[in-house]
Structure formats: structure tokens, C-alpha cells
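Module 6 notes. Inverse folding takes a fixed backbone as the condition and produces residue identities as the prediction. Think of it as a translation problem where the source language is geometry and the target language is the twenty amino acids. Below is one complete input and output pair. Work through it position by position during the lab.
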């Protein structure tokens, strides 16, 4: 029996999926909205931020017992050459079985393969501790149930993975080093991964059960770095993450997630910084992003598979973060087929000639999805390479599908910028224009080109200064065709 077939059988046995065939969505119940969220946007445009207190009251980092488990007691040696995979996982397993606590990685460099987090465990990296992850893909077998670009499958384990656990954390002042680069993991991007990527999209479009979407060895679909999947009460705090194969932080179908004081430096292909996907109640604060792709990207599944699972990304607060290089500072999409709502970003600093956009929403008529109630305020931009605000219905495949996206109720308030090509780059569909975008008390200097506004209804500028000119206007502009 091949290692992949065995891995698949083991997973089905562990997850209790044998005989079922189709993996069901996680037990995230529909959210009962408080009265604030039922208000129409025009009812209280200055009061939309009242919703943050309600969201923050729901977000509570997990608390762990005071027990400590030093990985050295389980055979881990921090010399940079000894394989510590078994020792690290043994310490986590024993800690969880004992009722939880802190698994401590002390100063030193610890070589490892895949790490499996378990309930009630805080994996704590002390000062000077480095977890250095093997460049050998075989160290991330057996296959696990995961998501790749918004589509569920059986694939390599993320470097740190948790599945259906409660109260999990990665904390401390140490470093997680993925060792990805020009000779490891990153060459899989683009041409090497294309056949497998196309096959995965085809399997999902045909409704093939997830347990039969088996990839891994020979398919070149890179794993995420850290992925809690269907977990409750997640904390990632204090650590530095460098050189990831693909997306760095990728919680999926999780509730109550806190990402705090994280530093991310990784400039490979698709090296997104933090991508919560189909999660509820998420706080991202005081983090620094220097990435090869989006700094923060909120997602909810891709195309038919995202609609099958049908869980939105919702109730997200982003504050006091720094965005350096990247395709976008705060991004929604493009894997947004399960919808996105109630997103708040404030007091962030964005500045780099290699940062393309401040706020970006990207979708198309294959992704579809509803994006609503997205609010940004008090953001300082030094420079971006393209635009301050981009909403684009023509991303990648463009208008080639039957799932027309909806984007509405977007507010940008008290945002300043020193340099950009565009202030606004908004491109909707004439049959489904972008609706109700409001800019209030913003100042954008050294803007090189006029706004691009195509198929937008009820764009409102209130005390918006662009290149010294104050604008107060309401704009509706429909474009019936594009050259």
C-alpha cells in the first residue's frame, strides 16, 4: 500500500469519516445579529464602530494550566542538526493528556518536521529559541485534511497543524523558520504546481468527496506554515515567522482567534502574512508584515467548494499593525465564495514602494460572494505602488461565471497617504455595481492619475482632499462594456 493511501485510510479512521464519503462543514451555527448589525448603513454612519465592542467581548484568548513541559525532557536537542520531530510531538501529546499546560522550547535551534498541536497546549518558544523546519517534503506526511487556495483536500501537513482542537496557542519571543527559498518549496509555485492545482479545481467543481481529493507527493501543492483547522480558542502571540512555503498564518473554520505581536518576514510566492478563512471573531493586533503577497487576506473558500462549505469570514478586527512590502495591506478575497462581513481595520501604518494597495477587495463571477460592512479608519499610508482603495470584480478569470459578486457598505474614514498612482480603483459590473462606498475626512497627496470608477453606485466623498483639492460629491457611474 502506498504511503498516501495509508495516510488517507488513517485520517478517515481518526476523523470518523469512513463510510460517509462527503466531509460535512464544521458545526459553526448561524450568528444571531445584535440590533447594531441590523441597522442600515445610512442609519448611523458614524456609529458603525460601536460594533467593535460587541465583537471584542466575544474574543477571549485561551487560558492554560500552570504546568510546564520542557521539550528537552522528551529528547529534543537544540543543536540545529538533531531531528526533534518526535520529541516535540511527544511533549505536546503528554501535555494535552495531562490536561494541558505549556510546552516550552528553550534557547537553541531545533530541527523538526510537522508539529501537531493538541487541545489545551501552549507551544511556547523562549528567548533565542528557533524551530527550524525541514526542507524535506516527506517530513510533512502523513496527509491531513486541509485547505489549499480555498479548496479542501488531503495534502501535506502544514508545518504546525491542529484539527478540531480547543484552546491552542503558539507564544513566546522565539522564531519559526520555514527554510523556504529559491531551492526549497518556492520553486513549486507557478508551473510545477499548475497540473495539480487544475486537477484540484476540477475535482471540487465535480463534487468529488474531499477524502478522495488525494494529493501530497508528486503534486507540488505547498503547505501553509501554521494552520489550526476547525479549532476553538486560538492564540498566536509574540513569535517571529520567516521564510514560509506559502501562506504563513492560516486559521480555517475557527472561532475566537487572537493574533497578536507577531512579526512576519517572508518574500516568496503566495507568501501571505495572515489569512483567516471562514473564521468568526478574529482579532489581529500589533503585528508587523513584510511579505511577498498580501499582508492580511480574509477568505471564505473558493468557487463551488466555498459555496459547499458555506461559512463566511466575519467579525474581524485589525488594529495597530504595520504593513511593509506586500500586494495589499488589508485584503478581502479572492477566495471569498462563502461571504465576508463585519470587518474593522484601524490605526495601521502602511508604507513601502513594494506595497501595492492599502485596502483591496478582489473577486469575480466565478468566486461570487457577498462582501459587506467593511470599515477602515485612522490609517496612515506613506506610499503604495498602485491605489489606496481597490475593489475589482475582474480579478483573474474576470466575468466568466454565473455567480455575480456583491460588494456594499464600505467606509474609509480619516485615512491619509503621501504617494500613490490612484486614490480609487473601483471596477464593478453594470448589472451588479459596487454599492455604497463612503470616504470621509481623507487626504491623499501626490496622486499620479485620476480615479478609475466603473459601475459604482452611491460613491460618496465627504471632505476628501486629493492633491490639495477638496471634494464633496456623490457619484454613480455605470459602464456597460469594457475594452
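Target side of the pair, the amino acids:
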Amino acid at each position: 500500500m502506498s504511503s498516501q493511501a495509508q495516510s488517507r485510510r488513517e485520517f478517515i479512521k481518526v476523523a470518523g469519516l469512513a463510510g460517509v464519503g462527503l466531509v460535512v462543514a464544521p458545526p459553526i451555527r448561524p450568528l444571531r445579529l445584535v440590533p447594531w448589525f441590523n441597522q442600515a448603513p445610512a442609519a448611523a454612519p458614524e456609529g458603525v464602530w460601536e460594533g467593535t465592542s460587541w465583537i471584542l467581548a466575544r474574543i477571549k484568548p485561551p487560558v492554560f494550566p500552570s504546568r510546564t513541559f520542557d521539550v528537552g525532557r522528551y529528547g529534543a536537542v537544540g543543536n540545529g542538526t538533531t531531528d526533534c520531530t518526535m520529541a516535540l510531538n511527544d511533549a505536546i501529546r503528554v501535555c494535552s493528556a495531562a490536561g494541558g499546560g505549556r510546552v516550552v522550547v528553550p534557547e537553541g535551534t531545533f530541527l523538526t518536521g510537522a508539529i501537531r498541536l493538541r487541545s489545551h497546549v501552549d507551544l511556547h518558544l523562549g528567548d533565542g529559541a528557533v524551530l527550524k523546519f525541514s526542507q524535506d517534503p516527506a517530513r510533512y506526511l502523513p496527509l491531513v485534511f486541509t485547505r489549499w487556495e480555498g479548496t479542501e483536500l488531503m495534502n501535506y501537513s502544514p508545518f504546525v497543524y491542529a484539527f478540531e482542537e480547543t484552546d491552542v496557542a503558539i507564544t513566546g519571543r522565539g522564531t519559526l523558520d520555514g527554510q523556504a527559498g529559491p531551492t526549497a518549496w518556492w520553486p513549486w509555485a507557478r508551473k510545477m504546481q499548475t497540473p495539480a492545482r487544475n486537477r484540484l479545481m476540477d475535482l471540487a467543481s465535480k463534487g468529488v468527496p474531499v477524502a478522495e481529493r488525494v494529493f501530497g507527493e508528486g503534486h507540488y501543492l505547498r503547505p501553509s506554515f501554521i494552520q489550526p483547522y476547525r479549532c476553538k480558542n486560538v492564540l498566536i502571540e509574540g513569535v517571529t515567522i520567516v521564510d514560509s512555503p506559502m501562506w504563513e498564518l492560516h486559521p480555517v473554520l475557527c472561532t475566537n482567534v487572537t493574533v497578536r505581536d507577531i512579526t512576519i518576514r517572508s518574500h516568496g510566492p503566495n507568501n501571505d502574512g495572515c489569512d483567516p478563512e471562514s473564521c468568526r471573531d478574529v482579532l489581529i493586533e500589533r503585528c508587523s508584515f513584510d511579505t511577498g503577497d498580501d499582508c492580511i487576506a480574509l477568505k471564505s473558500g473558493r468557487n463551488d467548494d466555498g459555496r459547499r462549505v458555506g461559512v463566511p469570514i466575519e467579525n474581524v478586527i485589525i488594529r495597530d499593525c504595520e504593513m511593509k512590502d506586500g500586494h495589499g495591506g488589508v485584503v478581502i478575497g479572492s477566495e471569498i465564495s462563502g461571504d465576508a462581513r463585519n470587518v474593522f481595520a484601524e490605526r495601521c501604518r502602511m508604507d513601502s514602494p513594494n506595497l501595492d494597495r492599502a485596502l483591496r477587495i478582489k473577486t469575480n463571477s466565478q468566486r461570487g460572494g457577498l462582501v459587506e460592512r467593511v470599515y477602515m479608519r485612522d490609517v496612515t499610508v506613506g506610499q503604495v505602488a498602485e491605489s489606496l482603495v481597490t475593489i475589482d470584480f475582474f480579478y483573474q478569470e474576470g466575468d466568466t461565471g454565473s455567480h455575480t459578486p456583491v460588494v456594499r457598505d464600505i467606509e474609509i474614514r480619516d485615512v491619509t497617504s503621501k504617494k500613490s498612482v490612484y486614490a480609487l480603483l473601483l471596477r464593478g459590473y453594470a448589472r451588479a455595481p459596487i454599492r455604497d462606498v463612503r470616504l470621509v475626512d481623507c487626504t491623499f497627496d501626490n496622486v499620479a492619475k485620476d480615479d478609475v470608477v466603473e459601475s459604482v453606485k452611491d460613491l460618496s466623498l465627504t471632505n476628501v482632499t486629493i492633491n490639495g483639492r477638496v471634494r464633496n460629491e456623490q457619484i454613480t457611474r455605470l459602464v456597460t462594456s469594457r475594452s
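Reference fact for the lab report: The radius of gyration is 22 Å.
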